[in-house]
Amino acid sequence: MLQFIPGLFKNGLNFDLFFDQLFINRISVFFGLDVIMSLATIFATVIVNPDRLSRGQRVMIFLASYLGASACLPLYLLVREWNREISE
What we know:
Blueprint: H1 4-11, H2 15-22, H3 26-48, H4 55-64, H5 69-87
Helix pairs in contact: 3-5, 4-5
């Protein structure tokens, strides 16, 4: 977010520029696809197992995805553990 927010202020919501810069070389493609696949996996897990999370928890996890997979995955794992402890 430390790099994304200044770029957002400078360029606005220019998605063409964002994706051009994200996929500018093989290294950035690797990192971009890694984040995209991580988020897709988290979303699939949350959607496929809806009985494990409340609606509010699912919404919170989806909103955390705007901060990236580094915020979304730990939040999902934390909520999942809280729910396990409560159900025991």
